[in-house]
Amino acid sequence: MSCESVESKIQNHPCYSEGAHHHYARIHLPVAPACNIQCHYCNRKYDCSNESRPGVTSGRLRPDEALKKVLHVGDRIKQLSVVGIAGPGDALANPKNTFETLRLVHTYAPDLKLCISTNGLRLPEFVDRLIEHGVDHITVTLNAIDPAIGAQIYPWVYDTHTKKRLTGVEGATLLLKRQLEGIALAVKRGLLVKVNSVLIPGINEDHLPAVAAELKQMGVFLHNIMPLLSKREFGTHFALNGVPSATKEQVQRAQVACGVDVKQMAHCQQCRADAVGLLGEDKSSDFAPAAYLQQPLEALHGAYQSSGREAFQEAIENFRRHAENAQAARARLSSTGQTVLIAVTASSGDRIDWHFGACDRFDIYEAGDRGVRLFSKREVLPYCSGESTCGTGPIQAIKKALKGVERLLTVRIGNRPASELIAAGITPDEQYADWPVEAALIAAAKAHLHPDSASNPPLSAALATAGA
User: Is the pTM value of this prediction over 0.70?
Assistant: First the structure.
């Protein structure tokens, strides 16, 4: 798959793109109640509207009800870009509900990306059908590639083909076989695959790098290491038997170790099965069923189509392009990506040769340790219009003109205006008097951004750095 193709798929997907998750929203549809495996970290009977974790939902929806909710939410949350089916059971253990929901959403809201989350037990038999229904992203939960470890996580696995419930290593072996087959087939068919792994202290914590190495071999796009959430009130086997929640430090160590092989997801929020909105800002409680179930489908569809979603999302992309251009510019200016706004008093624009009191224009630059760019020119009334009026000038207007500036390079400045500027967060600096502007700016930026390591260089060295 080409880089351009991958980029187009993840551009507005908040789970697959760390940049997108600040701007785009998702909705999870709880249409899949049944599950075909049991996990020691899961208790789908627990329901709390104030808790965010997988398997939790405040209600279940039929496919037709789920469609109405999507249209209703999409009309009101214009940055909605993704529809996912992630439970509260397993999407593919409920194929009738899952595929009917996907069909309806793809028909009535074809602009939305479709995703499913699965344990992978039935993934091999459904990959082609997922593609036919417009799905191009899937998430598979894979916690171990050693059946002996898997047996400590899954007490039983139900095989639809044989109608048997398998336990222990036998069940974990079958699950792993189907997971690896399904992931390999999905990657081959061009689906983007994200793998979730729950870090379970004392069980698979040290095993996850081996999982990541296997994912690399299969071409998995993204690996998401999730901390085990284990509290007695959750009622899970692990919680009731003393297995602790994973710490942030444990997850970070695992991400570093696994990141050698496969790209890591670091912005997961472990969403509810009925989550709505931006990641980390769940608004599921804002959309009560009564608000949309009683409305005719035609009315909801019409509102969705006329809601201005396309224009709204185009504005998002324009903002992102502007931000990316600014970030690229900062990278050119600074080795660390950090820059500072610096004003100079330069009468002709090329040399710092103006006293603060006399200047009627400040040239504002964005400066880093590599280079500078002109940010703006701001005209002001001079602080001194003559010897008798010096010290009574428009300092408030000058401070307003210098808003955002952190440093001022000038030939000379009096104590009174200097104190006013310092109080406003602007540091006056006279040591670059008569320096060429670019050399002075780079030297001052280094001193400002790296005060512990930077020393003011002689003019000759600064000129060499600036290429003067």
Answer: no
